[in-house]
């Protein structure tokens, strides 16, 4: 069996210092949907969390096709950013600590235990599964804020 899953993360005001309310979602094609909320986060953390949660809902050894509109997530794997990060002691090219190391390390472990294919999709371009993941992530923020508007 091959799992096809669409993931997305959202953040209320990604530019605010210290993080803002965020949501994540993963939608399995012909399967379940999952979403969640974090009161103080960033969009990148939510994008990573969405993929982590998706992979946690598959078994080790599974074949998983991850569809994401996050260049941040997709490029890390397609361009093997990990090789440079590890060579530099988990520092980026500027010598600063890699952001979101905790999530990257968790995600990498989950990926190593599965056969993952990465597909970059264009966000807000009418793909019904990508749109559904976005809708769920935004709704998770709204619900996490007690039903308040997310904008």
From TrEMBL:
SUPFAM superfamilies according to UniProt: Ribonuclease H-like
Cleavable signal peptide: none
Reported cofactor(s): Mg(2+)
RNase H type-1 domain boundaries: 1-142
Keywords associated with the record: Endonuclease, Hydrolase, Magnesium, Metal-binding, Nuclease
Annotated family: Belongs to the RNase H family.
PANTHER family documented for this protein: RIBONUCLEASE H1
Oligomer and partners: Monomer.
Name of the protein this chain belongs to: ribonuclease H
Organism: Sulfobacillus acidophilus (strain ATCC 700253 / DSM 10332 / NAL)
């Amino acid at each position: 069996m091959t799992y096809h899953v669409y993931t997305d993360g959202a953040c209320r005001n990604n530019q605010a210092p210290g993080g803002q309310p965020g949501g994540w979602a993963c939608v399995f094609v012909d399967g379940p949907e999952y979403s969640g909320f974090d009161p103080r986060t960033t969009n990148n953390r939510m994008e990573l969390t969405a993929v982590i949660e998706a992979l946690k809902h598959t078994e080790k050894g599974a074949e998983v096709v991850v569809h994401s509109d996050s260049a941040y997530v997709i490029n890390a794997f397609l361009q093997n950013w990990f090789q440079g990060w590890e060579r530099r002691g988990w520092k980026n090219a500027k010598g600063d600590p890699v952001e979101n190391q905790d999530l990257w390390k968790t995600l990498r472990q989950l990926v190593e235990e599965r056969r993952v294919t990465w597909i970059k999709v264009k966000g807000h371009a009418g793909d019904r599964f990508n749109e559904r993941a976005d809708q769920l992530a935004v709704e998770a923020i709204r619900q996490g804020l007690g039903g308040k508007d997310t904008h």
